[in-house]
Amino acid sequence: MMKTWIGIVTFFALFVPVFAGAQGINTNVALAVAEDEAIFRSQVRYRRATDDPTGMDREVEALVLPQTLVYGVTPRWTAFVTLPVLALRKIELGDGRVNKDSAVGDLRLLARYTLLADDPAPLSTRRLALLAGMKFPTGARRFGSPSFDPILGLVGTWAANRHEVDLDALYTITTERNDVEVGDQFAYDAAYRYRIWPARFGRRLLQFNGVLEMNGRWAAKTRIDGRTVAASGGSVLELSPGAQFITGRFIVEVSVQIPVWQDPNGSQIEEDFTGVLSMRIPFDVGLR
Predict the structure, then answer these.
(1) 66 near 54, Cβ under 8 Å?
(2) What is the helix (H) or strand (E) element at residue 12, kind and residue range?
(3) Given this model, what pLDDT does residue 168 score?
(4) Given this model, what pLDDT does residue 8 score?
(5) Residue 179 vs residues 71, 108, 144, 183, 225: alpha-carbon distances, Å
(6) What is the pLDDT of residue 273?
(7) What is the Cα–Cα distance from 69 to 280, expressed in whole angstroms?
(8) Which of 172, 181, 218, 227 could be a cystine partner for 186, CB 3.0 to 4.6 Å?
(9) Distance (Å, whole) CA 74 – CA 28
(10) Across the 288 residues of the chain, what is the mean pLDDT of every consecutive 10-residue run?
């Protein structure tokens, strides 16, 4: 049971993004959210892993639903709340047995402060923002960690007419609680977005974008009762092509994350791919 729990913690560390707001799919952006406006994002992430180094022919399928609410506090401050929901995890063992379960993950609260905002021309911007927040142990024990973990990071965005480049880096400092310390986590991403249509905006603000990303995740090994768990932590680097359709009322986006390099520690199963589908709905909050 403990080994299963540790595997799920590592799974969340490498599979669930810390947050994603504004216009990124798997990469965070530094674009502003208008004051007293909000964005609700519902995402579906399907992961399949079948490369079992133990020769036991284990296979894992998981369906995770990260739910994110973004709120523009001021022109420089933006707040994020993310709750990942594990809708289904299925493990097929080599002897034909199948284990299925589901649960709610750990809540994450983050704030983004814009350090630099330069808009030299219409449809052009350069922005740099600081990220800070906390991971709270609100999830089920088997699908989260029991600690309160600080999160720090930077995110930058450069946009000029039809082109946009986004970069981010976030570090989660894990802490020990109940003799369990899940390893520190580092996420880093780079994205290029190109507006395929329209070449020029008219009266209707419809938009279709092509997106290409590189998404990296690293997690240190877990320690329990002072002992290091060999089959925990690891690294993965993914190439993630995707597309976005943007209207004035909602955004629909799809992406496929394909591992180009991965190094899971111990007997963990290597990932095949992750499919992503999400929708974002902006709305006025009316608190001011």
Answers:
(1) no
(2) helix 2-15
(3) 97
(4) 46
(5) 36, 22, 15, 13, 5
(6) 96
(7) 10
(8) 218
(9) 19
(10) 48 55 80 94 95 86 94 96 91 84 92 96 94 92 83 97 96 90 93 94 86 96 88 93 94 97 90 96 89
The answer, yes or no, to whether the previous bond of 66 is cis (omega within 30 of 0) is no
Q: What is the 3-state secondary structure (H, E, C) of 173-186?
A: CCCCECCEECCCEE
Determine the residue type at 164: E
pLDDT of residue 18: 58
Give the H or E element holding residue 9.
Answer: helix 2-15
The CA-atom distances, in angstroms, between 91 and each of 6, 48, 110, 288 are 15, 10, 32, 48
Summarize pLDDT for 225-258 with one digit per residue, the tens: 889 888 888 999 999 999 999 998 999 999 999 9
The rounded radius of gyration (Å) of the Cα atoms in the chain is 19
| Backbone angle region of 267, left / alpha / beta, with phi > 0 → left and psi within -120 to 50 → alpha | alpha
Residue closest to 245 by CA, chosen among 186, 204, 189, 188: 204
Instruction: Give CA–CA dist 106/177, Å, rounded.
Output: 15
In angstroms, the Cα distances linking 248 to 44, 123, 205 are: 22, 16, 6
2-284 CATH, one of 1.20.120.530, 3.20.20.10, 2.40.160.40, 3.40.50.150: 2.40.160.40
Contact in structure between 262 and 272 (CB atoms under 8 Å)? no
**Cβ atoms of residues 17 and 66 within 8 Å:** yes
Distance between CA atoms of residues 274 and 236, nearest Å? 12
Phi–psi pair at 25, nearest 5 degrees: -95, -65
For residues 83 and 67, the answer to whether their CB atoms sit within 8 Å is yes
Instruction: Determine the Cα–Cα distance for residues 121 and 118; give it in Å rounded to an integer.
Output: 9
Residues near 192 by beta carbon (within 8 Å), at least 6 away in sequence: 163, 164, 165, 211, 212, 213
